[in-house]
Specification:
alpha/beta; single chain; 8-stranded mixed β-sheet; 446 residues; 16 helices
């Protein structure tokens, strides 16, 4: 359950009414209906950029309500909004925090007691002047802080979930946002990367966990999984290195079957990050029970070419480029490489234990897979990615499916965090503000 509580306030930011709606973004139209009642005479809507959607703005305009909503960073043309009025959201946030801390029933008299009346002697309530001397707006509907409040109070349920693997169970985490909500199955990137998007080799950005938490607040359930042979799915196979993209795709199909059985949904969304995007594409071939695909910082070129570009960009690798190119060419052609002929610094990368996987991996072309897919498709790319290139990969994906929805996030790195962002206390890298919002809007729109 992810119900959201909303507040309608007067110009002094004191609540006039509360009402509750389902947490899905698609339910926001009911906010417009409630705010547009003659008894309220709402003139302004204050909300954060998570509510920036053209259809939502149009619905507000039709009811004579002016949106004061910052545009998402993915917008080609910045959205105009009144920054002075938008600052009022801070006071409203404090109101909601008082409501949260009080643990009192949600009714107007309790909030009025916690929200002192601003001094406005001699000025009628509907014409109270602000500090700048201009007349304040009569009524507004605020959508950010109280929605956040309800997401704390009514948090989505998380539980361990299993699917059948070749020799043992596969394990993942189900974040249940409520009955009859869409479900997104998340597939992590390359190497020893767990269900949360954390690498066993060091980085712990928690990309997929953060996306799952954010989607739950917007009424979207999710399942994120450990790849077979790794982490909690280690028992599914004897050797995690002896795997192919087809094996991963089979796992995804098994997960879809389990999700449909447990949740009752007919269709499941697939979201793949980095190499997980290739797995999602392979899994979607002929899948009638897939709603659509979401590729997050995924490549448009065969991954052998992506690896080649990454290594060519490294200054320390310039003296061994012929060995790098020779090894990648051999693997792409289906031949093994004698690592003893390589520079010591390359032997671990092309270790014999992973060469069979690399041979299979390099033969898959994302463009070919995408052309064979029919269904909704979201491409999310970032401009500060050192692993996948928006310049080289994005045009290939767009050309393969011209109808795909494309989101290009500026100054965002491969983990979907803003460039230079400071890690959180747990080591995770906070996501760019548009990531979850754009994914949620795409899912709910379809």
């Amino acid at each position: 359950m992810n119900t959201k509580l909303h507040a309608i306030t007067n110009q002094n930011r004191r609540p006039l009414s509360f009402f509750m709606i389902a947490g899905q973004i698609s339910g926001l139209y009911r906010c417009c209906c409630s705010a547009g009642q003659p008894s309220y005479g709402t003139q302004w809507m204050l909300a954060d950029r998570g509510y920036d959607a053209d259809w939502f703005r149009d619905a507000l305009e039709e009811k004579g309500i002016r949106p004061c909503i910052p545009g998402r960073r993915s917008r080609g043309k910045p959205a105009k909004y009144d920054k002075r009025k938008y600052k009022c959201r801070n006071t409203l946030r404090q109101m909601s925090e008082c409501l949260l801390l009080s643990h009192l029933p949600r009714c107007n008299r309790h909030v009025l007691a916690m929200s002192p009346e601003p001094k406005s002697a001699g000025v009628p309530e509907r014409e109270t002047q602000n500090e700048a001397g201009s007349v304040s707006f009569p009524f507004l509907l605020y959508l950010l802080s109280l929605g956040g409040l309800s997401s704390y109070a009514l948090a989505a349920e998380s539980a361990v979930i299993e699917a059948p693997g070749p020799l043992g169970p596969l394990e993942g985490t189900l974040v249940n946002a409520g009955a009859n909500t869409p479900v997104v199955l998340m597939i992590s990137g390359s190497g020893p990367t767990d269900r949360d998007g954390n690498s066993a080799l060091g980085p712990k950005p928690a990309t997929l966990r953060q996306i799952a938490d954010g989607l739950a607040k917007r009424g979207i359930s999710s399942v994120r999984i450990d790849k077979h042979g790794m982490f909690s799915s280690k028992q599914a196979v004897a050797d995690g290195n002896h795997v192919t993209i087809a094996d991963y795709a089979t796992d995804v199909r098994n997960w879809i079957t389990v999700i449909r059985h447990k949740s009752g949904v007919r269709y499941v969304w697939l979201a793949g990050h980095s190499e997980g995007g290739l797995v999602a594409l392979a899994s979607a071939q002929g899948g009638a029970d897939i709603c659509g695909l979401i590729l997050l910082a995924a490549a448009g070129r065969p991954l052998g070419e992506v690896l080649r570009s990454q290594l060519h960009a490294m200054p320390a690798a310039q003296t061994v480029l012929p060995q790098i190119d020779g090894a990648i060419d051999a693997l792409a052609a289906g031949r093994h490489v004698n690592v003893q002929t390589l520079h010591p610094g390359l032997r671990q990368l092309f270790h014999p234990a992973v060469q069979d996987y690399m041979i299979d991996l390099f033969r898959h072309d994302p463009v070919v897979l995408l052309r064979a897919y029919r269904g909704p498709f979201l491409i999310m790319q970032v401009t500060a990615d050192r692993q996948v290139s928006a310049i080289e990969d994005l045009p290939l994906l767009k050309a393969a499916d011209p109808k795909a929805q494309v989101v290009l996030l500026p100054n965002v790195i491969h983990t979907l965090a803003d460039l230079g962002v400071a890690p959180a206390a747990d080591g995770s890298l906070p996501l760019d503000g548009a990531v979850v919002s754009d994914i949620a809007e795409f899912v709910l729109k379809h």
